[in-house]
Amino acid sequence: MNEVKLTSVESPLLTESTSPRLVGATGVSGTLQSPSAQSPSTPLGASLPGQEPDQPADWSSCPPRLHNHRWGSLELSWAAVSVAGNHRPTNQDAVVAAPPVFVVADGMGGHQFGEQASAAVVAAMTPLIGRRDLTVESIRQALDWAQQEIDQLTVRASTGQSRPANRTIRTAGATVAGLVLVRQDDQWQWLVVNVGDCRVYRLTEDDCEQITVDHTEVQELLDQGAISPAEVALHPRRHVVTRALGAGSEAEPDYWLLAPGGRERWLICSDGLSGELPADVVAAALEYDGEADQAATALLAAALRSRGRDNVSIIVVDAVFDPTTPAVPPLSRDSRMGTAQPCSSRSARTVPRI
Looking at the whole model, is its pTM more than 0.70? Predict the structure, then answer.
C-alpha cells in the first residue's frame, strides 16, 4: 500500500481465472509446496538474515502455473501469482499474464478504491491479449483509458454517487509495471512500461538488471545523492510515490524498448515483492535454473517468509529468441537513452527509453 505525493476482447490465450485479481495465468501445474515447507526446488524458502518470519499466508490452493506459447520468433513460458500477503485482508493488486501482455497493477486508495483502481488497469489491458498488431501507441491509449476510469472513481465518490457514509473520500490510483510485445521497426520488440513503484527486471546470460526506475520520494533522494542505497529500505518516506495512474497525477508512464535476444528471464512485480527482498535475493531467484513457475514460487515464498506486509504479485516470463524473425509492419518513433538499474552487483546496461 502506498501514499501519494504529487507536485473486453475474447482470446484463446485468456483462460478462466480462479481469482478475479489474476487474468490469463491460473491453476496448478504439478505439485508445488506452500512456503511453509522446505524444498530443494524452492531455494529461497528460508527466512532472510536478521528477520523474524511471520506465519506465511496459505496460497497453496492457487500456486503459479506454467504456461507455454510460441509467439512469432519467441518461445515463451510464464507463470503468475497474486496474493494478499500475511497482513492485508484483501488483495488490491491485479495481474494480466498472457501473450503479448504481462502487467502488474497495485491499487491505491484503501478498501474504498484499491481493488477498483487495479481492476481498471486489467480492464484496459485484457482486450490486448492475443493481438499481434500492438504498437507503443496501443499501450499508451490503453493506459490513458485506465487513467480516465480511475479518475472517475474519485469523481463519483466526491460528488456523492458512490460516497460511503461517514467516511473521508480518498483518491483512487494505481501503480503499474508491464512487459508487452509490440511491433517496431519490422521486428518484435519488448516494450517495458512503469508508473509508480512496481518493477520490471531482466535476466540475460550476462546481467541481471532492474529496467524500470521507481517514481518515489526515496528514488529522487537517491538520485540526488541525499541518501545512500543502504538508507532506502528504512527511510520513513519509502512508500511515498510521486507518479501514478489517477491519484490526481497527470504524469505519464515511462517506456523502454528492448530487442529480444538469446535466452531471457523477466520479472514483473509489485512493491510487495521488491519492498520485502533485497536485490541480491531477487537476482538469486531469477538465476535459479528452473522453470518460470519455480522461480515465481521461490520469490513468493521468500517475500512471505520475510514479512509479507503487503499484497504480492509476481509474473515470471522466460523467452527464447529464434533469429529467423518474421517481418512485421514498422512503427517509427524517436527514442532517447535511459540507464537500467542493476539488481545484482554486476554493472547495468544502457537501454532505450522512449
Answer: yes
Handedness of CA 188, 193, 198, 204 (dihedral sign): positive
On whether the CB atoms of residues 84 and 157 are closer than 8 A, the answer is no
Question: What b/e sequence results for 188-222 when a residue is b if at least 16 CB atoms lie within 10 Å of its CB, and e otherwise?
Answer: bbbbbbbbbbbbbbbbeeebbbbbbbbbbbbbebb
Q: Show the cell assigned to 322.
A: 529464434
| pLDDT the model gives residue 288 | 83
Structural domain boundaries in the chain? 19-29+42-323+334-353
Residues whose CB is less than 8 angstroms from the CB of residue 293 and which lie 6 or more positions away in sequence, other chains included: 29, 30, 32, 63, 64, 65, 66, 79, 316
pLDDT for the residue 60: 57
Looking at the structure, give the CATH architecture of the domain made up of residues 19-29+42-323+334-353: 4-Layer Sandwich (3.60)
Torsion of CA 18, 253, 114, 220, to 10 degrees: 120
Instruction: Give pLDDT, residue 131.
Output: 96
- Please list, in sequence order, all residues whose beta carbon lies within 8 angstroms of the beta carbon of residue 173, skipping any fewer than 6 positions away: 4, 107, 108, 109, 113, 117, 150, 244, 245, 246, 247, 248, 249
Which pLDDT belongs to residue 268? 98
The one-letter amino acid code at 251 reads A
Q: How far is CA 1 from CA 83, 155, 296, 339, in A?
A: 13, 21, 21, 27
Cα 69 to Cα 35: distance, rounded to the nearest angstrom: 28
- Residue 61 is predicted with a pLDDT of 55
Task: Quote the cell numbers at residue 128.
Answer: 490486448
| DSSP for 217-233, written as a single string | HHHHHHHHTSS-HHHHT
Query: Hey, how many other C-beta atoms are within 10 angstroms of the C-beta on 161?
Result: 10
What parts of the chain have a pLDDT lower than 50?
3-19, 26-56, 327, 329-350
Smallest Cα–Cα separation from 132: which of 102, 99, 95? 99
Give me the amino acid identity at 202.
R
> Quick one: pLDDT at residue 90?
87
